[in-house]
Amino acid sequence: MADVTASDSALRRFLHGLPGVDAVGLQARTATLGTRSIKTTAKAYAIDLAISMIDLTTLEGADTPGKVRALCAKGISPDPTDRTTPQVAAICVYGDMVATAKEALTGSGIHVAAVATAFPSGRASLPVKLADTRDAVAAGADEIDMVIDRGAFLSGRYLEVFEEIRRVKEACVREDGSGTAAHLKVIFETGELQTYDNVRRASWLAMLAGADFIKTSTGKVAVNATPPVTLVLLEAVRDFRAAVGVQVGVKPAGGIRTSKDAIKYLVMVNETLGDDWLSPEWFRFGASSLLNDLLMQRQKLSTGRYSGPDYVTVD
Amino acid sequence: MSERLSVLKTYKLFVGGKFPRSESGRVYEVTDAKGKWLANAPLASRKDARDAVVAARKAFGGWSGATAYNRGQILYRVAEMLEGRRGQFVAEVAEAEGLSKSKAGLQVDTAIDRWVWYAGWSDKVAQIAGAANPVAGPYFNLSTPEPTGVVAVLAPQESSFLGLVSVIAPAIVTGNTAVVVAGERAPLPALSLGEVLATSDLPGGVVNVLSGRTAEIAAPLASHQDVNAIDLAGADPELATELERAAAENLKRVLRPQPVDWTAAPDTARLLTFLETKTVWHPTGA
Amino acid sequence: MPVFEYAPAPESRAVVDIAPSYGLFIDGEFAGAGDGKVFKTLSPSSEEVLSEVAQAGAEDVDRAVKAARKAFGTWSALPGSERAKYLFRIARIIQERSRELAVLESLDNGKPIRESRDADLPLVAAHFFYYAGWADKLAYAVRGRSALNGTSGADPRPLGVAGQVIPWNFPLLMLAWKIAPALATGNTVVLKPAETTPLSALFFADICRQAGLPKGVVNIVTGDGSTGAELVGHPGIDKVAFTGSTEVGKAIARTVAGTRKKVTLELGGKAANIVFDDAPVDQAVEGIIGGIFFNQGHVCCAGSRLLVQESVQDELLDALKRRMGTLRVGDPLDKNTDIGAINSAEQLARIRSLADAGEAEGAERWAPACELPSSGYWFAPTLFTGVTQAHRIAREEIFGPVLSVLTFRTPEEAVAKANNTPYGLSAGIWTEKGSRILWMANKLRAGVVWSNTFNKFDPASPFGGYKESGYGREGGRHGLEAYLDV
Predict the structure, then answer these.
(1) In what residue span(s) does the Aldehyde dehydrogenase domain sit (chain B) (predicted)?
(2) Looking at the predicted structure, is the pLDDT value of residue A280 above 90?
(3) Coil, strand or helix: which one is A145?
(4) Is residue A313 part of a domain?
(5) Which residues, in sequence order, are bridge partners of residue C48?
(6) What residues in chain B have per-residue pLDDT under 50?
(7) pLDDT tens, A159-190?
(8) In the predicted model, what is the mean pLDDT of chain C?
(9) pLDDT for position C460
(10) Which helix (H) or strand (E) holds B253?
């Protein structure tokens, strides 16, 4: 696959040679999968799996160390009334909150994910983006959620986007001499790429450049993760593993607020990718309010009563 | 024992799915055929007209983009909801037009059936107004009708309900949205129709109903650059000419007033007036 | 065992109340057959007897035709707008009772509840809704024809009594396709549902009651092929509408020869689903799957022949097999079932024999690992590769979940192979190239051509075949002409 990234024109030829996506057919497929009825034991399994896949997120200008610590506590013990509740996969914050989060999560095994590269717009020079990344990695981030330059992508400068991802990936290497690196999630902001063909091309571009995860959205624009867009990502990681032998994770983010939605995504993963991706190692939800809905559903399953917002914590 | 005092209804405009009073704060007295006071109706202003056009434009994308089947179901739902409030409309029409209960009943029944008639057109109009055109060359060529956009509708003055329905339904069934100026002297059935439309799954803004002086409200609508067509049914000849002239500024499609027997079965003329024909060419070749 | 195992999610059977026995619905009343004969209807997924149904004989059919004839005068004289309102009522009642009818359909037919709920029933209601709208617009529907007849402006005339015989694959939907246009145009009907799936038609009789439909306008006679033959041959009917096998269709064409009966036939098919190397591959795979496995392949327009361009054959087949592995076969009432039961023991035997012939003739058979229930009639989704035009499985309609894969090299070859069949009902084309889609569509001898989709139905869209797939069209404006004297 190295030759396809040898030049801008080779990369363009490759990306434009990927099979097209028929939008109507894609949407029809996700709609059909959305009718799957997940009940009783399957629902209990799916809810716990979904909780364990959450990148519990706070990305506000108003974030404070207090807010981040509260979120970390919630991630460790999502439902204080039920200790069997799984903990979340990661806490996702801005780079300057990494140290706070890292400290609050000590010993929990929960990762700290930091958004970087001039999140959410990506409008900064490469040196700034690399510095942003290194800063978060140095502060202890386990995972970096970078954004691609949608401007470059939409104007067809694919190699530039490719190089940027590659350089950020290099910047994820820890400078502590351990030889380890933070995991790189690459955000496409699919709401701005608009077409499913673009989403498929962006997926392959990012995977070729070394993405560990591909992620739909920042949560900061009007259209965030949708089932059809996520299905395109799932198909891409499936085909990429078949072609290259490398498994890449998927993270839909933004707009997933209910258990019902989350379960629909898990059904898509199950029926598109199967067992290999059904773990927090390979699939994540970027979400905040989703967690409480999952907890209320979980309480409903265990008590038989519908729960209410007063019975879950607000952090 | 004294007779119970009834609760009177405050009649309001219907704009964007909501029921505002006129921004002008004005009302005018509406009486029955014998001059007895019935209600104070909002006297809508130029600004109400402007707001109604904004609401209609906002609704156009969703309504014209809905499937024809969906639009048909909603128009049929209007008929269902009207049937349930038949008594109210019979009373209002009888008062408004000085008709007996039975004559008013016929007007209302015909109006309900008219919604049903137009409901059926939603997914059929393309089948009579569209065509596959056999062009001389290796091309697929298909013409389909599309809604023109926002239609200003001056409801007929002489038929407060049947005439009103007969001009609204054909405009909206194909996907247009409408700003309707109710008949000036008898606006109450039109304002009450808004209450039915609001509970018939019709998206807010598809139909907007204004009451007041027809000439005053019609002028800004006829000259409005974001209105695509105007039905002059409710304008007298002099006003109609003036409005048609104003409508020329952005080449609105104009339906001139003509004598119509509203009780007679309509043809497709009104339906087809507010449509554009779009023709698509596509090569055919292996 | 998979990590994410779906727990059973059965739709409740309690929403439908099936009586232990049903009579014939003639002139607004239920009554047993004159000779008292009955037959049992089974649930094909469990072989459980659902009910006992009257077997109509010649006298019963005659009674039904007479009732329809008697009702015809008043019904056809009603203003179209009044007939329209009856049909709108029926459409609405079907929408209201759709879950009950979906469960009933899945019980009697064996199809998955997901399909009866999300495809059959919405289409049934939509069909009545659509034709309701035509009832008072007939002059517009056939304007050109009327003008030629010198009757411009007048409503075209109905034919009279329609004898309608429908199949078991979409019992209620085929009923809707037959009854809605017939009633809209002012005809009255005698309808015979299939022997293995009579129940939804009998429930429809109850919907007619709720809608207040005048008695005799719709009559339902249940029975086997002999009942159908009585109906088709009855001198008192003016119109025959049949959906079913080409063999029976030909027999009907012979029966009506020399009469004034107007006939429409919607018969078998062996559709080619043609996939080019530039197809949107993931959606093509879904289209192939839906094309052949929808309704267990009991679909006359099923994409039973996959014609794949040689350059993408391996890639496509890999994807197809992977996808077939995720199909869920089993209890039709489980909301997660993709493939339900084969409709009857007889049909299962036919599928088995043709599949065996495929193997015997040298094609390679493949099916995903798939556990089938122990009672009822089942057949795993099956794929044959290495199929040629000469194989029986490429020529004969299997009417089951069996896909025959053939290859082609050029568009010309694809067209030649697709058309190389006595059938001509439908075809599919998968390519991102628009001009090729339209070129192919021109060349294909098939009544319906789907591009980058498959098995799409809509009441506004005409449906019907070329060649031995039948004649006449159902659906759309064209569907009215079969019921009008034009």
Answers:
(1) 23-254
(2) yes
(3) strand
(4) no
(5) C43
(6) none
(7) 999 999 999 999 999 999 899 999 999 999 99
(8) 96
(9) 98
(10) strand B253-255
Judged by CB atoms closer than 8 Å, whether chains meet at C438 and B284 is answered as yes
The SS3 assignment for C90 reads helix
Give dist(CA C455, CA C269) in Å, integer: 13
Contact C312, C347 (CB under 8 A): no
Q: In which element (H, E) is residue C404 found?
A: strand C402-408
Q: Which CATH superfamily is domain B27-283 in?
A: Aldehyde Dehydrogenase; Chain A, domain 1 (3.40.605.10)
Give the total number of structural domains in chain A.
1
Q: Which of C190, C188, C189, C186 is nearest to C157 (CA)?
A: C186
CA C399 – CA C294 distance, rounded (Å):
11
Gap between the Cα atoms of C444 and B198, Å rounded:
49
Q: Where do the domains of chain C lie, and which CATH numbers do they carry? A: 13-267+468-481 (3.40.605.10), 272-459 (3.40.309.10)
Q: So what's the pLDDT on residue B33?
A: 87
CB contact under 8 A, A38 and C9: yes
CA distances from B158 to B260, C139, C287 (A): 10, 30, 56
Is residue A107 domain-resident?
A: yes
CB atoms near residue B232 (< 10 Å): 23
Mean pLDDT value of segment C223-233: 98
pLDDT mean over C79-93: 98
Q: Indicate which CATH number applies to the domain containing A103.
A: 3.20.20.70
The reported pTM is: 0.96
User: Which residue's entry shows tokens 């009506």?
Assistant: C256
Are C4 and A46 a contacting pair at CB < 8 A? Answer: yes
Active site residue C266: yes
Question: Does the pLDDT at position C149 exceed 50?
Answer: no
Tell me the ipTM for this assembly: 0.95
Residue that is written with structure tokens 């929403």 in the block:
C15
Residues of chain A with pLDDT > 90, as a percent, come to 98
Which structural domain range is residue A293 located in? Answer: 2-304
C296-306 residue pLDDT tens: 999 999 999 99
Select the residue of C133, C143, C440 nearest B121 (Cβ to Cβ).
Answer: C133
Question: Given the structure tokens 């309704």, which residue do they identify?
Answer: C295
